[in-house]
Design a protein that fits this description.
The structure holds 2 protein chains of 2 kinds.
Chain A (H helix, E strand, L loop, with lengths): L6 E12 L2 E12 L3 E5 L6 H8 L7 E6 L11 E4 L13 H7 L2 H4 L7 H13 L15 H14 L4 E5 L7 H17 L2 E5 L3 H7 L2 E6 L1 E6 L1 H4 L2 H8 L4 E5 L2 E5 L1 H4 L6
Chain B lengths: L1 H5 L5 H26 L3 H10 L1 H10 L3 H21 L5 H20 L5 H10 L7 H20 L1 H9 L1 H6 L4 H42 L3 H26 L3 H19 L5 H10 L1
Helix pairs in contact in B: 2-8, 2-11, 2-12, 3-6, 3-11, 4-5, 4-6, 5-6, 5-11, 7-11, 8-11, 11-12, 11-13, 12-13
The chains are: A alpha/beta, B mainly alpha.
């Protein structure tokens, strides 16, 4: 892909939080074209807050965030965002295809109805998450994992430069987890830039190019082999994490394994 | 049967009443779809009551009632929106305060007139048979604008109603759309004032839309069915009130309610009766 390697996201000395109280302070990092980056950290570390700031949902208290397209701008909105637990009314009268079509609204422009291109983008996005057979179901009739895949398809239909996924595996059934993992592999081939948060340190270590270790500040960033060392993990997780050196390498237990608490 | 339906049409006031009812039934039900889906029933009811002082002032000063009602309606809608957006007090509290205060002011103003009970009754419960040709034009214009906006901003309002976070991510002008919906709601309430009155407007907003909600699974069919149910109830209610000599506003609302109960019990997907049968079989 033409844009591989160029800077897609730059976060510079960002301080952000709610009601004037900072949750994250002085965070600086960049994400480059085609990278898949995992954000890990304990509950309350500010992972969701960081996503909201990048998606433009929270005003910054300090610093700046820039999203550059790698290609000439693909659309009016550069970021797509899959929230952790979508706070939508699932009894709402919309089908799966209707929900995915909502991702196209930003590109369609005012006073336009969906074109053939929009419908094609919706069909393709649903196929990418393996949900094209359920396109006409009402959204509330699906399982939690299937709904998560629909919201991912909606983000794909947006065709943004950067895809943010906040805990996409939380509370998801095994089949959906598998489908999302396969999707991540395929998107790697397509060169889409992805920033994803997860509780699952093993998954982060296995699947991602680069790790951001977060707890109120950016503790460390780099390839998994550098970031997942006991010293740094202890600094991020404190007493919440059990670490021991296994004969085959490092075995890690994040707090998310024991209980599914509120993500931070 | 046809005679029962056609006889009223020989009176011009009845024809005007029927056209007004059709308009009200359609516009209220279409916008009511969002009222039902967003849980704004209390807001709609409050808005209908809160326009009374504007109507009273216009009435006492001899101005067009629509103008007074529209100005107050928009004022109250934006006021409630402002109070809750700032997060000082909870939305239902803000609504309760503004609604009862404005309603009391309206009644106080009207009570300065001697024949006050008759006028108050008309405002509270509507006077559809007293619709003048001028009223009809205003109703048509306001209702038409509301329907045009619903159609023109269909996909934006859909995203706003279903997922406000996505609306923000897509950089839609969420604050503008929020207030626009409130203003459209105020205009709709004004349209309904003459037909069903302040006290029963919320029924026209909520009941046909709720019935349609039970019977459909996509927004556009829900809107279309709500509009059909609303206008059918309006016409049937008016005919019934003519032949049975019942007050027209309540007759319209009672038909809406009856249709809702039918759907509640017999809707194929969400109906109570089919639920029982499925459980009995299972």
């Amino acid at each position: 892909m033409s844009g591989a390697g160029c800077e897609v996201l730059r976060v510079e000395r960002v301080t952000v939080g709610y009601d004037g109280r900072p949750v994250l302070e002085g965070v600086t990092f960049s994400v480059f074209g085609g990278e898949q980056v995992a954000i890990v950290g304990p509950n309350g570390a500010g992972k969701s807050t960081l996503f909201k700031a990048i998606a433009g949902l929270l005003p910054l208290q300090a610093g700046r965030i820039e999203v550059f397209g790698c290609e000439p701008h693909r659309g009016p909105v550069e970021v797509s965002y899959v929230t952790q637990r979508s706070e939508v009314d699932l009894s709402f009268p919309v089908t799966v295809a209707d929900v995915v079509m909502m991702g196209r609204v930003g590109r369609m422009g005012w006073l336009r109805w969906p074109s053939r291109e929009d419908r094609e983008a919706v069909r393709r996005a649903l196929a990418q998450v393996g949900m094209e057979d359920l396109a006409d179901r009402q959204i509330g009739e699906l399982s939690g994992g299937q709904q998560q895949r629909v919201f991912i398809a909606r983000a794909l239909a947006q065709q943004a430069d950067l895809l943010l996924m906040d805990e996409p595996f939380a509370g998801v059934d095994a089949a959906s987890e598998q489908a999302i993992l396969e999707l991540l592999d395929r998107l790697r081939g397509e060169g889409l830039t992805i920033l994803l948060s997860t509780h699952d340190l093993n998954l982060a270590a296995d699947r991602f190019d680069r790790i951001l270790l977060l707890n109120r500040r950016l503790i460390a960033q780099g390839p998994p082999s550098e970031v997942f060392c006991p010293d740094l993990l202890r600094r991020a997780y404190g007493g919440q994490l059990a670490i021991w050196e296994h004969e085959r390498g490092l075995v890690m237990l994040g707090d998310g394994h024991c209980s599914m608490g509120e993500g931070g | 049967m046809m005679g029962w339906l056609l006889e009223p049409l020989t009176y011009p006031f009845m024809v005007r009443g029927l056209i007004a009812s059709l308009l009200v039934g359609t516009v209220c039900a279409v916008l009511g779809t969002y009222v039902v889906l967003k849980g704004m029933a209390f807001f709609g009811d409050a808005l209908a009551h809160a326009i009374l002082p504007g109507v009273a002032v216009a009435y006492l000063a001899g101005w067009p009632l629509f103008a007074g009602a529209l100005v107050t309606g928009i004022g109250v809608a934006v006021g409630i929106g402002y109070l809750t957006r700032r997060g000082r007090i909870k939305e239902d509290t803000a609504i309760g305060i503004l609604f009862s205060g404005a309603f009391a002011l309206g009644i106080a103003l009207l009570s300065t007139v001697e024949a006050y009970t008759v006028d108050l009754t008309h405002f509270l419960f509507g006077n559809v048979l007293g619709v003048s040709p001028a009223d009809l034009w205003t109703t048509g214009a306001l209702g038409g604008i509301v329907l045009l906006l619903v159609a023109a901003l269909y996909k934006e309002f859909l995203v706003m109603a279903f997922d406000p976070v996505l609306a923000q991510v897509l950089r839609l002008p969420t604050t503008f759309l929020h207030y626009l919906l409130l203003v459209m709601l105020a205009a709709t309430v004004v349209v309904a004032l003459q037909t069903v009155g302040v006290a029963l407007t919320v029924a026209m907003l909520v009941t046909p839309a709720a019935t349609a909600y039970l019977l459909t699974r996509r927004l556009l069919p829900m809107m279309a069915l709500a509009a059909f149910l609303g206008s059918f109830s309006a016409v049937a209610g008016l005919s019934l009130s003519f032949s049975l000599n019942v007050a027209s506003g309540p007759a319209v609302v009672l038909i809406c309610t009856a249709l809702f109960l039918l759907a509640l019990f017999f809707s194929p997907r969400r109906g109570v009766v089919w639920g029982w049968l499925r459980r009995a079989e299972g």
